[in-house]
Write a structure and sequence with these properties.
It is a single chain. This protein is an all-alpha fold. It has nine helices and no strands.
């Protein structure tokens, strides 16, 4: 007997609708004012839910930012993966993966830096932190996949190089010294470091 997927119950639909409203409200307010200037109460009011309901989905503003940004970063990674598929040159393909992630991070600089801080120093057992770390893992796997093409680099070396590339990207996005730099400058800095790292 085959099991037919059942539509989500009313309670699950209501929970999903509340989560969607909270995510949309937080996304809009964070983009306009920055995470530090927005209160949980403002998010609750905009989402038309109680403050207590917001805390059911995310216990802190940092977790709310992770909730919002994880979806954006996943989308950026998917665009980068797709772009990299048709690029034969390893450096150019790696940069194709990195570029949309950097642009996503720099959309609102303070939010991007706060997201990275929350991801690194937050509780990895919390689901939004775990999801953010999973996105980092997926990014490294995509970069390693490019490096393994045509047997250029072995499995272990590709994973190690991808981890280093990820660290270069992370530092370039998070460093205070880069706050005033444009996206193109940051990408060029990353590109130079990655070019020196990759086998010639």
């Amino acid at each position: 007997m085959s099991s037919v997927p059942q539509p989500a119950g009313r309670r699950e639909r209501n929970k999903q609708q509340k989560l969607d409203r909270i995510t949309a409200a937080a996304s809009e307010l964070f983009a306009e004012y920055g995470v530090d200037e927005v209160t949980t109460q403002q998010i609750a009011e905009k989402a038309d839910v109680g403050t207590g309901t917001v805390f059911l989905y995310a216990k802190t503003k940092g977790e709310l930012l992770l909730l919002v940004q994880n979806a954006n970063y996943s989308g950026a990674l998917e665009r980068g993966r797709t772009d990299a598929e048709s690029i034969p040159d390893a450096l150019e393909a790696v940069m194709a993966i990195i570029r949309p992630i950097v642009r996503c991070n720099r959309t609102q600089i303070d939010n991007g830096r706060t997201y990275l801080r929350e991801m690194v120093f937050g509780n990895p057992d919390e689901p939004h932190h775990a999801e953010a770390l999973n996105i980092v893992g997926q990014t490294e796997e995509a970069i390693a996949g490019v490096l393994r093409r045509g047997g250029r680099v072995g499995e272990a070396d590709a994973a190690t190089l991808a981890h280093v590339v990820s660290a270069i990207m992370f530092l370039a996005m998070a460093a205070t010294i880069n706050m005033a730099r444009g996206v193109d400058e940051i990408e060029e800095d990353i590109r130079g470091q990655v070019a020196a790292l990759l086998p010639h």
